[in-house]
Amino acid sequence: LGAIRFSLQYDPIEQMLNVKVFSGHKLKPMDVGGTSDPYVKCTLIPGHPKATKLKTSRKECDLNPVFNEKLTYHGIFDSDIKTKMVRLTVLDYDRMTKNDMIGITTVPLDGLIPQKQHLYGEVLKEPEEETHEASAVIDRGRIQISLHYQANKELKVTIVRCSMLMVPGSDTLPNPMVKVNIRPSLKRNTYKRKTEIIKQTSNPEFGHKAKFTYDISSFDIESNDRCLEITPAVMATLR
Question: Can you tell me the distance from the alpha carbon of 160 to that of 207, in angstroms, rounded to the nearest whole number?
Answer without folding.
Answer: 5
